[in-house]
What we know:
The protein is of the alpha/beta class.
Amino acid sequence: MLITVTSHKGGVGKTVSAIHLAAFFVREFGEGSTVLVDTDPNGSALEWAQRGKLPFPVVEPQAEPGDEEHVVLDSQGRLHGEDLEAAVEESDLLVVPTTPEALALNALMLFVEDLERIGRRTDYRVLLTMVPWWNLSGTRARKALEAEGVPLFEGEIRRREAFQAAALRGVPIYDVNERRARQGWEDYEKVGREVLRLR
Length: 199
Ligand SMILES: Nc1ncnc2c1ncn2[C@@H]1O[C@H](COP(=O)(O)OP(=O)(O)O)[C@@H](O)[C@H]1O
Ligand SMILES: [Mg+2]
């Protein structure tokens, strides 16, 4: 399965989502089953891997294709035109993270329009990320997007400091020994199971 994690803008949790979906696939299908391809020129997933230890290889787009069954592509924000069409063409599923703020949602709707213009050849699902626990912005965002007919994952990723600790240490969040790290992993597990059901 080839999953592309992409979005309208940066800083919405693409890299964190790509890392944790790849980690979920490894847990599910075993070592050697999954590779993460970092197509973002910023190389944030590659850096994550270099800082610590991940249970799957992170490679550059120019790398020779391996024999992994599952490929997760971490992309930069603002894919459009031919790049977006190519991503849609190649992928079995596009995962589109967004934070729940109104401005992020406006940009997301423009991206969704781009996707719809290309046609429905690829499935995509929007993933709510960094959802604050102290207000209802997540619930509100979900309602607004559902009203627009935007397909959403049921699972969502709440805002947790432990994700930053994971990035800093170069590990998946389940290797972070901090309060609430476990719930962060459970958020991604739920989304991972939904991805598998979409196959
Ligand atoms: N669920 C979350 N809770 C808290 N911080 C998060 C969460 N997801 C991502 N972050 C942080 O937000 C920033 C942007 O995330 P990142 O995955 O790099 O976004 P993108 O790849 O879309 O630019 C990073 O500092 C990351 O550690
Ligand atoms: Mg990124």
